[in-house]
Amino acid sequence: MEKQLILNSTFLTRKTMVDLTCYLFFLLFVYAATSKLLDYQQSLLQLSKSPITTDYAALLVWLVPVTELIIAALLLIQRTQTLALYACLGLMSLFTTYIIAILNFSEIIPCSCGGALQSLSWKQHLIFNLAFIALAILSIFIKPNPNKSGEPNSPQSYSNGQLNQDKPKTCKRVGT
């Protein structure tokens, strides 16, 4: 009984942490994408000024916010959360790599982020991105797995670290 209580408590803590991370990413991506789309001309101008993205600005001005919105939607669906967390990790890693490249190899440093994120310094931007990357990695590693019966994230799916597996029912042939 006590072991089950501890198991349930650990499960709920892990699930709460993953859910919180998913909601934070959801808010971040919806906010950033909306800001970029609402201020389309400014976003296009900033992407055009960057020596890394100049040639692709017309594509990226749509691709980035649409990708952010798709990932945000995937975060809300329980079955696609793990995939979405990997996508969050990938996108934030790309953004962070872009920041590092711009800071080290460019004299022109435009910011094509949306909304209030534009007011961050580049160092703050880097720390912000690294924090979200850490949240994504942590959530991927601690995210509870669904059990075999398809009931997602139930504490009963974790018994001694193993998924509960019902014995398969077999059909016996009667006669010849």
Secondary-structure content class: mainly alpha
Rounded to the nearest angstrom, the radius of gyration is 22 Å
What is the total domain count? 1
**Helix share, percent:** 55-70%
Order of helices and strands: HHHHH
Number of strands: 0
Identify the overall geometry.
Answer: elongated
Major sheet characteristics: none
What's the mean pLDDT score?
A: 81
Cα(first) to Cα(last) distance is: 49 Å
The low-pLDDT segments are 148-174
Instruction: Work out the helix count.
Output: 5
Percent strand equals under 5%
Membrane topology: Multi-pass membrane protein
Protein name: Methylamine utilisation protein MauE domain-containing protein
Subcellular location: Membrane
InterPro entries: Methylamine_util_MauE
Topology, element by element:
Elements: H1 2-38, H2 40-49, H3 57-76, H4 81-105, H5 122-142
Helix pairs in contact: 1-3, 1-5, 2-3, 3-4, 4-5
Describe the structure in your own words.
The chain is mainly α and 176 residues long. It has one domain (2-144). The chain is 64% helix and 0% strand. It has 5 helices and no strands. Helix 4 packs antiparallel against helix 5. The radius of gyration is 22 Å and the shape is elongated. It starts with a helix and ends in a 34-residue tail after the last helix.
